[in-house]
Each structure stands twice: as structure tokens, then as C-alpha cells.
# Entry
Amino acid sequence: MKLLFSIFVGVLTGWTSFAQTPVIVNYTELKPLLHKQNDTTYLVNFWATWCSPCVEELPYLEAINEKYEGDEAFKMLLVSLDFKRHLDSRLLPFIEENKLNPEVILLSDTDANYWINDIDSSWTGAIPATLIYRNKQRWFKEGSITFQEIDSVLINHFFKTE
Amino acid sequence: MKKILFFFLLFGSLSSVFAQGYQIGDKAKDFSLKNIDGSMVSMADFDEAKGFVVIFTCNHCPYAIAWEDRIIELHQRYAAKGYPVIAINPNDPEVQPADSFEKMIERAKEKNFPFPYLFDEEQSVYPVYGATKTPHVYLLEKEGKDLIVKYIGAIDDNYEDANAVSKTYLADAIEALLAGKAPNPAETKAIGCSIKFKK
# Structure
């Protein structure tokens, strides 16, 4: 019985991880997630389902996540800039189809002129864009990334401490 | 410590790469680009204009599409006052097939674009301006023979809903120029689709 129960729970949690429903947040709600001070390295990728270079780099991000997930000191967050009205029609089906594992949230906040600069003053607003941070240390890139690039930034600048 | 210093140097050099392109007050270069009707268009062709609303935009980008009707309205409101819109598609159609010249013609017909829609086929104009995304606006004002960059950035503050716009950045900037003032803010940011260049 116990076994059955744990299988049931396992299936349930497995199911929820594939069928995650992204929450919709504004920037006030997102900001704390970009400034946690708990020694964990966070990788935050800004993307959208309609953005082809974003979709092209998702497999690299998935591979990075697979390599380091489960490690308490690493967490990935995919911030979708899809339109709010496309949550059910586009974002959810995309997450399910691609079995996206990292947590996805949808940022819907019209004051982009404020929050783009607040996230990184070098960001012009083009996506994809990637932020990696650990406590006060931050790395930001506007434009596409590769697996090797992110892996070496993580290894050389975030996972190794002096 | 050395590593941190290196990190900042690297980061600093990267941001200076991104900072290339026009700043407010710079002289903008004219161009000669193919319009959807096959003619070549330059800003020098518009004797009557007091300036130009140069917008890097494209067919495929949902943000560009979301702002399309508002770009048409801005042109209708301000062309007669001396500030026509000139739209430029900077994308490489090999990377983004929906942004081919043929598709530009189709889109312009569908939407009845009242302004030139030019193709930066050699991708030689957008890097000079420093555009990184669509839509990306450069508002220019004629000063003698020069075209001076007066405003860079967004059209307004709501990509999702034209009826919920609270800050009409670009219209305000044009109004400021018409009133003989400097736009404030002179630079704004918005999310956009990265410009697709040859790999």
C-alpha cells in the first residue's frame, strides 16, 4: 500500500513538474527573485515562445539545468515575455510540448522603460537576455548564449570562490 | 580579487560594444534604401520635412505587430506637421524568412502603410544607428543640412494594449520638437525582438 502510495505521489509530482502553470508577475514581484542573497547561483533567462533565437538556445539552458539541477546552490528561472493573453493558448502548450523543466514565470509589466534598466543598465531590451547572479556578483548578456559559454561563466565566475 | 577585476573589465568592454551607435545630439547619416515600391528612398528626398521618425521594425515580431497601428497613426498625425515616419526592416530574411522583401510588400499592402517601408538589405544602416531590436525608434530633427538625433527608444509604454497606454513617449518627443523644446525623456527602453543578422 505504502509503495502504491509513493508511486502515486511520484506520478503526481512528476506530472506537476511537466505541467507547470507559470504564474504571472509584475516587476515588483519579480525583482526579489533577481536579488536573493543566499549563496545560491541563479540563472535567469528572458525569452518568449515567438522569439526564434530564444527558442534555439533553450536546449542549451536545459542542458545546463540538467547538469547542475539538484545542486542546492543552483537554480534556473525562465522569465517569459509572452503576452499575458497568450498564457493558455501559446505558453502552456509550448512548455508541455517541450517538457520544459526549469521554472517558468510570465512577466507582464508595462513599465519596461523602468525595469529593463533596473535589471541591467546595459540591456537595450532585445531578447534573449540572460542574467546570472550569486549574492552581489552579477553577469548579464543581451543576445544568444551557448552551452559552453554559460558553463564556463558558471564554473569560472560563480561556482569557484576565492 | 584578480578574477573579480577581470570580470569587471570583461563586462565593461562588453557593455561598450553594446553602447555603439547614436547618442542623443549625434548627427545621423542619411541612407538610400529600397522601398516596397521598388524606388530608392533617402531622407534627402523630403525637402519639406522638419525631421524624421525612423523606426526599425519588421513583419514577424509580435512587438512590431502590436505597435503597427500606432505607427500608422503617428505618421498620420505628424507627417503633415513635418515629421513623417520612415520604417526600415533590418532583418536578414535568411535567418527570419518572414522578413523577406516580398513579405514586406505583402504586409505593407495588408496594413496600407502610408509611409515608406525600406529594406536594409545589406544590413549596413541599423548598426550605424545602433538599433538592436524591433521596434527601435530614432527621432531626428533637421538643423540646417544636418539631421540631429533627438530621441531614441520606445513608441509608448504598453506593448499589449494600445488602449492602456499611459506614457506616449514618441508622440511627446515629437510634440516637444514642434514646440521648440528638447524631448524629455530623450531615451526610453522597451522589449523588442533582437535584430536577426547573418551568422
